């Protein structure tokens, strides 16, 4: 079940973040660390109603922030469309629930949410060293459109878009 996140979910979300950081660092991907993302980032997402969680058998196993907020760094990239867009941010799945289709459920939910809001355009980004998310976005029908410098990281972030059929 996918639903809007509540403040009561923050503990489980931060547990997934800690697991994900350990895994990312194991393959030299330092996209996330002790500085980002923090609990306050997710609390802000919840307050705005932009954070969605997925539960399996009563356990929170993944989440994604979906909103219309584009990082300023997106300016100047060669996006295909110039219209309303939903952006997928801060997406993760519990390490114990990977390879079970949960990420696909979340990304499909982003598509459905966009279409319900008369939006057929989605954007996202991930660190160039985040091989798992880069593969996931490509496999999910997102097209690589360019790269940007972001969060003061040494390597670029890859930016993706997906245009939905209406």
What characteristics describe this protein?
seven-stranded mixed sheet; Aminopeptidase; alpha+beta; 166 residues; single chain; 4 helices
Describe the structure.
The chain is 31% helix and 28% strand. The chain is of the alpha+beta class and 166 residues long. It has one domain: Aminopeptidase (3-Layer(aba) Sandwich), CATH 3.40.630. It has a seven-stranded mixed beta sheet with strand order 1-2-3-4-5-7-6. The longest helix has 17 residues, at 10-26. The chain starts with a strand and ends with a strand. The model has no long low-confidence stretch (mean pLDDT 95). This is GNAT family N-acetyltransferase. Residues 1-165 form the N-acetyltransferase domain. It comes from Clostridium mobile. Keywords: Transferase.
Task: Describe the protein's topology.
Layout: E1 2-4, H1 10-26, H2 39-48, E2 51-56, E3 59-67, E4 86-93, H3 102-116, E5 121-127, H4 131-139, E6 143-148, E7 157-163
Parallel strand pairs: 4-5
Antiparallel strand pairs: 1-2, 2-3, 3-4, 5-7, 6-7
